[in-house]
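Lab notebook: predicted structure, single chain.

Context: the supervisor wants predicted structures on file for every construct in the current expression panel, including those that have not yet been purified. This is the next one on the list. No modifications to the sequence; it matches the entry in the shared construct table.
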Amino acid sequence: MTNWEPGVGVVELPDGRLVRGRGLHAHPASDFQTPEFGVYLLGRTVHPGPWEHRFVRWPDFGVPLSTPHAMRALCEAYDRAAEERVELGCAGGTGRTGAGLAVLAALAGVEPDRAVAWVREHYRARAVETPWQERWVVRAAERAIERRSAG
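Prediction complete. Output recorded below exactly as produced.
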């Protein structure tokens, strides 16, 4: 298992998994330890580096264009964070990245309706920037938890 060194954007989820949130415009990959897997939540396709990654089409200040696609990528990120350095990123590292981290926090045991507050306390105070992003986190996390417990 490889882990993140303590640093900017590294968040410890309630179950001990470490995930890094990053603003791609604010913090180039060269400024940091290299991830082994990344999920990038953006309005356009990017190629962040040579590591394995998933791209989720997600407009700024909005919600993902495809919730099922976003949840597959976020669930994969959560599962891989048990043994790999995983990062989530968007342009600024706040709204979309915060929403993704909130879903991961819910998968790690935080109640879905508390996940946004949790990520604001442990990652960034302004994370998850819009009311529709907040509603999306709760609904998407509840469905993901239901599917995992049924499966």
